[in-house]
Amino acid sequence: MDDVDRLVELMKEADYIVVLTGAGVSTESGLPDFRSPTSGLWQDESLMELLSTETLTSDPKRFFERTLPLLELLTEAQPNAAHRVLARWEERGLVKTLITQNIDSLHYEAGSRQLLEVHGQLRTASCSCGALVSFSQLVAKVRKKEIPPRCACGAALRPDVVLFGDPMPASFGQAIGEVERSDLLLVVGSSLQVAPVAYLPNMARAMAIVNLTPTVADGEAKVVLRGRAGEILSELDDRLTRG
Ligand code: NAD
User: Which CATH superfamily is domain 37-76+121-161 in?
Assistant: First the structure.
């Protein structure tokens, strides 16, 4: 029995599988992750300072002019095989909840609905008055040099993503509850270095990891499969459906 078969067995035995994904699940859609050695966005150290509430409020011109090209790139990608397999597993009742750190909406576009986007998403932008607009409306305002982009009430609009300095959204509390309820947490494409999401594996009863490179939690996992998420999840799906 190889490691793929071992994970297939774990998945068949589990009653409540929760999946946690990170930027690595979207690299096969052409999007950079944060920590891959040569292509990761973290090569650009200023990103952490740029993608912060501090820069958004103190220097909105710099925030929008520098971050918008990156945020727009994330909205232009298409789901890949890994996103599609995870959506199918939800449809079949195999996966109960999908927690993602990604803001690119690719799980949503692939069809996942039991989805907790704990770092937000790029479908909408919002105002402190409660109004919601589409992310593309916000982009259109910035393109017309309306910076900061304004809501009809006059206050500034912001993208609905969790910036450095923001509190975690309510969905993170739900994510903790789902991981505690699960009997298998499957982590796909995350270095597990970003807190507080990095604490979720400690709350899981059992965990398996699919990742291209070693992670800090490999020692705690029942199975670690090293490789590309699209290929490995497709192989898992084949073997699960073969029976
Ligand atoms: P990370 O960059 O820290 O880790 C990604 C991991 O995925 C790495 O260990 C890498 O080896 C692995 N990986 C890369 N390609 C892979 C593939 N094809 N198959 C399997 N594994 C692969 O990402 P993280 O842990 O998600 O933390 C980064 C933070 O950056 C998150 O908070 C996320 O919100 C944000 N981010 C999001 C996007 C996005 O929405 N697509 C992109 C970049 C960063």
Answer: SIR2/SIRT2 'Small Domain' (3.30.1600.10)
